[in-house]
Backbone:
């Protein structure tokens, strides 16, 4: 599972950051300013630390499924394979926390906080990230990873026996194949089909997207 911090909004002003207090009146996020994330102080100790982490997502799909469709008509054959994974999350870990000037995603920059009322979901952009908006593992990095993908689409044509027998061939088939032709997902990263080892399952570290591939071929049997 993904274990991190809950986010309850973005500070819209410095005054709002200074007024975020615990039950004893202690300021919770001392380094926060306008545009920084508001982290939930789950244990109520007036600090944001490991004790405030909680379950924020799972990389394991609740449903995996596929559909094969195979049709033959006269000398034509058609094959289609759809695959889907639903009910799981991806942790977007594409930035390196140890390098301040590593590129941010277009999504983060275009939707960033720019002033009061601009957004309550994305933090401000700052190289000096004292509030650790882009460093603390939080709900912000956990994204819906549901997807439906057309993995394979193939159309073939087999020459009639009356023709192949003349050239002393048992069968001659021409085919066109497309792989990863369509993908339906709300995931904003490059590739929703993220695997990984047991301790890094579902963490997107910039995985290269599966390409669309178009193939044409001939199958000959003598």
Residues:
């Amino acid at each position: 599972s993904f274990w991190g911090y809950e986010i309850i909004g973005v500070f819209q002003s410095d005054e709002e950051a200074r007024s975020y207090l615990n039950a004893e009146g202690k300021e919770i996020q001392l380094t926060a300013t306008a545009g920084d994330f508001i982290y939930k102080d789950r244990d109520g100790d007036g600090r944001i630390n490991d004790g405030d982490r909680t379950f924020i997502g799972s990389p394991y799909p609740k449903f995996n499924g596929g559909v094969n469709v195979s049709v033959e008509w006269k000398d034509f054959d058609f094959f289609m394979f759809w695959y889907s994974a639903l009910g799981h999350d991806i942790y977007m870990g594409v930035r390196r926390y140890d390098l301040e000037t590593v590129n941010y995603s277009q999504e983060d920059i275009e939707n960033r906080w720019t002033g009061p009322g601009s957004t309550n979901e994305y933090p401000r952009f700052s190289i000096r990230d004292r509030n650790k908006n882009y460093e603390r593992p939080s709900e912000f990095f956990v994204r819906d990873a549901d997807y439906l993908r057309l993995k394979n689409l193939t159309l073939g044509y087999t020459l009639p026996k009356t023709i192949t027998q003349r050239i002393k061939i048992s069968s001659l088939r021409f085919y066109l194949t497309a792989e990863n032709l369509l993908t339906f997902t709300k995931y904003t990263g490059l590739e929703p089909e993220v695997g990984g080892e047991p301790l890094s399952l579902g963490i997107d570290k910039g995985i290269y997207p599966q390409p669309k591939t178009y193939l044409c071929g001939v199958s000959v049997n003598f």
